[in-house]
């Protein structure tokens, strides 16, 4: 069961609670770095709120997009049950990349609304996004969603009461592997945040580091609810687009080097 506890008739699911813990720790990091960088924490809370709302919306919208074919099929097979079908899909399921890009969109909207420095804000919130990401993956590991392929061995994980993973089958601990990677990435970004000379680079470091890692992780995943096209999952295609975009931006921004009068490139 993925229900952690109930309070006043409201059920708190493990995944949601881990997300809230991630938001809390993200807020604590934001408070710390605002004091270090002399930013107004009260002002940044507005950015944080918009980022969070857009992240939730983006994660849900991409999930609905990935599941659109199944939703249409179920509605056509059981049209009389449409309220329950839609309710089930609206209540559960999020896709990470939708949340990431939704969060970035929320930050950029805040930049426009509050007339802030875009690069500065993306740098400030890149480690926050990574931190929340890590705690959400802990939630995945606890409830058994986003599970790995079958693999018996000393490091395999077994789920007995998961609503998502196969019962009592050894699985690659892919959620745990991704957790380690993501929290290590947070440490790197946190260190870089405290250093000078990294303005405008942190969000790109996050994307460039995570996209190829996620591409590899996807080959170890055993769940099928991820969308697929030409043998690659939705996240793998998004990762390819992210890498191509980031590399193209690097090339365009670097531009052709000048040539001096002797024909040598400077």
How would you explain this protein's 3D organization?
Strand 3 and strand 4 (232-233) form a beta hairpin. The relative contact order is 0.11. The chain has helices spanning 14-37, 41-66, 68-77, 82-91, 96-114, 118-143, 174-193, 202-218, 234-254; strands at residues 3-7, 10-13, 228-229, 232-233. It is mostly helical and 266 residues long. The termini are far apart. The strands form 2 sheets. Strands 1-2 form a two-stranded antiparallel sheet. A two-stranded antiparallel sheet has the order 3-4. Helices cover 65% and strands 5% of the residues. The chain has one domain.
Overall number of domains: 1
Give the biggest sheet: 2 strands, antiparallel
H/I helix tally: 9
Q: What is the arithmetic mean of pLDDT?
A: 86
Structural class: mainly alpha
Uncertain runs are none
H and E order:
EEHHHHHHHHEEH
Residue share in β-strands: under 5%
Strand arrangement in the largest pleated sheet: 1-2
Helix content: 55-70%
Radius of gyration: 21 Å
What is the general shape?
globular
Number of strands: 4
CA-CA gap between termini: 63 Å
């Amino acid at each position: 069961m993925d229900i952690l506890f109930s309070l006043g008739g409201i059920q708190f699911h493990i995944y949601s609670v881990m997300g809230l813990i991630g938001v809390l720790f993200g807020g604590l990091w934001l408070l710390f770095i605002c004091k270090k960088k002399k930013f107004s924490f009260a002002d940044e809370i507005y950015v944080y709120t918009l980022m969070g709302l857009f992240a939730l919306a983006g994660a849900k919208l991409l999930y609905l997009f990935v599941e659109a074919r199944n939703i249409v099929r179920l509605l056509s097979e059981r049209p009389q049950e449409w309220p329950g079908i839609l309710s089930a899909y609206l209540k559960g399921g999020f896709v990470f990349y939708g949340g990431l890009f939704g969060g970035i969109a929320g930050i950029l909207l805040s930049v426009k609304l509050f007339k802030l420095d875009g690069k500065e804000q993306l740098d400030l919130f890149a480690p926050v996004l990574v931190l929340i990401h890590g705690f959400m993956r802990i939630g995945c590991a606890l409830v058994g969603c986003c599970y790995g392929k079958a693999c018996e061995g000393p490091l395999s994980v077994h789920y007995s009461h998961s609503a998502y993973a196969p019962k009592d089958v050894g699985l690659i601990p892919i959620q745990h592997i991704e957790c380690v990677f993501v929290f290590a990435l947070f440490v790197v970004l946190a260190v870089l945040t405290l250093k000078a000379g990294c303005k405008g680079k942190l969000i790109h470091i996050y994307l460039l580091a995570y996209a190829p890692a996620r591409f590899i992780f996807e080959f170890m995943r055993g769940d099928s609810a991820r969308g697929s096209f030409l043998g690659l999952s939705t996240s793998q295609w998004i990762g390819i687009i992210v890498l191509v975009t980031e590399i193209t931006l690097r090339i365009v921004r670097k531009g052709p080097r000048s040539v001096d009068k002797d024909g040598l490139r400077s």
